[in-house]
Specification:
The structure is a homodimer. By secondary structure, chain A is of the alpha+beta class. The first copy, chain A, has two domains: 64 residues, Arc Repressor Mutant, subunit A; 160 residues, 3-Layer(aba) Sandwich (Chorismate lyase), CATH 3.40.1410. Helices cover 27% and strands 35% of the residues of chain A. The first copy, chain A, has seven helices and ten strands. In chain A, the strands form three sheets. Chain A has a six-stranded antiparallel β-sheet. In chain A, α1 packs across α3 and α2 packs across α3. Chain B binds a DNA duplex through α3.
DNA sequence: CAGTGGTCTAGACCACTTT
DNA sequence: AAGTGGTCTAGACCACTGA
């Protein structure tokens, strides 16, 4: 452990461990070495290591269980929904969405794509159009835009046994992309004719417009997602701390 | 420091310190004793005390500055806006709101008030109707509902020299209420005639509807705020982690 | 330069899980 | 019983602030 690096040791350790996960040296579900061993390997004290591990746990990159061990976090539909799917019914309870993919194309990035995803002009993107269905009713129409360079040979949950699998699980296991954070900008917009046809509402019905940019563990912008939520029977939950 | 209490020591210490702040034993802006002294007073080690202080800092109840000391956090308009005011212009930059209070009344709580604020039926509430103005244009109409029991003799920033003061600053210094957290439910709604008249938009224009319940450091629901944001030129920013 | 918070260490002991 | 993470301590040293 060298100290010309100005950052505190625990941050350096955190960066080293994060790199091992992001690079795939430690794979999802794998147990990390026990704390005393890992601390000795890294040449730091147990306390310093634990501080780094605590931060990785907060970012959902590892899971620690007393008595069992520390594991590289697995991406599951439950986790992806719990962390990133903020839709609630009017009683305030989470809803379980189904997904219907309507169109997948690969095309040159638009100006908006280039800006939001930090692409070079002319880069290619995949576009996924889909709707999300709660209790049989379509309530969201959305378009997901992905840099083609990060998702070569894009693979989607199209097989019947995968229909319940959240797309962030595929990012992780098919493309090695670990989603950790998203920035959203919210507004209200009237339903277009296409929106209305899918959602079963009148043209002009106010919809909640969600423009999400998603970031991975390496800090890259990996997804632009524009969603329109029909809020006649649902709400979007936010906590401010 | 007794140990029949099942919680870890650092949580007990955190609760003790929080109580001193909430009760007013330590007032806003006051310096806490230095860490070694405070640790000795509490009968815990420096490390345990620091863990409790770190959590209080995360909740914005204290501020720590290396070389200077630890202080009970002061509520300022800048802090209130930075933490709780999520409106951005289309460039993504924060906006500085002005406030126009249009009506203040005290009335029995509605069913919604009782449920959101955990009141007993028949309790009284204050209602504040106001609009918020960015760059000269009214963009938000909102109603704030406060339990009259927590805000006796409600005092508001009505004097000219207080017009730039955020209302959470008044909660803190006039009523001893320290706002730390808020839960919001977002949806889209058409502008009513009154909304349209204030916001200068057409009736039916989609507005972002924000239903916020605010909590204080003691965990009490202290405010219900229903806002309608005109998103023609602004967005509501959210971060998901 | 004195006083403050921030980092880092080494080690004891506790609580939980699995064998 | 063995092995894991969780808590707590005591103390050294560093980095920053303000008189």
């Amino acid at each position: 452990m060298r100290r010309p690096d100005a950052r505190p040791l625990y941050m350096q350790v955190e960066a080293i461990l994060k790199e091992r996960i992001v690079s795939g040296a430690w794979v999802s579900g794998q147990a990390l070495p026990a704390e005393p061993e890992l601390a000795a390997d890294l040449g730091v004290s147990a306390g310093t290591l634990r501080r780094a591990l605590a931060e990785l746990e907060r970012r959902h990159l590892i899971e620690r269980r007393q008595g069992r061990g520390t594991y590289v976090a697995q991406q599951t539909s439950e986790r992806a929904l719990g962390q990133f799917f903020r839709v609630r019914n009017l009683a305030g309870n989470p809803v379980e969405p189904e997904t219907l993919i309507t169109r997948v194309v690969t095309a040159p990035a638009s100006e908006e794509d280039v800006e939001c995803l930090h692409l070079s002009p002319g880069a290619e993107v995949h576009r996924i159009d889909r709707s999300r269905i709660f209790e049989g009713e379509p309530r969201i129409v959305e378009r997901i835009t992905l840099p083609a360079a990060l998702f070569p040979g894009l693979s989607l949950p199209l097989a019947p046994e995968q229909l319940g699998t959240e797309i962030y699980v595929h990012y992780r296991y098919r493309h090695g992309i670990i989603v950790v954070r998203a920035d959203e900008k919210l507004s209200a917009t009237p339903a277009s004719e296409e929106d209305a046809a899918v959602l079963g509402c009148a043209v002009g019905t106010p919809l909640l417009l969600i423009e999400r940019v998603t970031f991975d563990a390496a800090g890259r912008a990996v997804e632009l997602r524009v969603s329109r939520l029909d809020t006649r029977a649902h709400r979007y939950a936010v906590e401010i701390v």
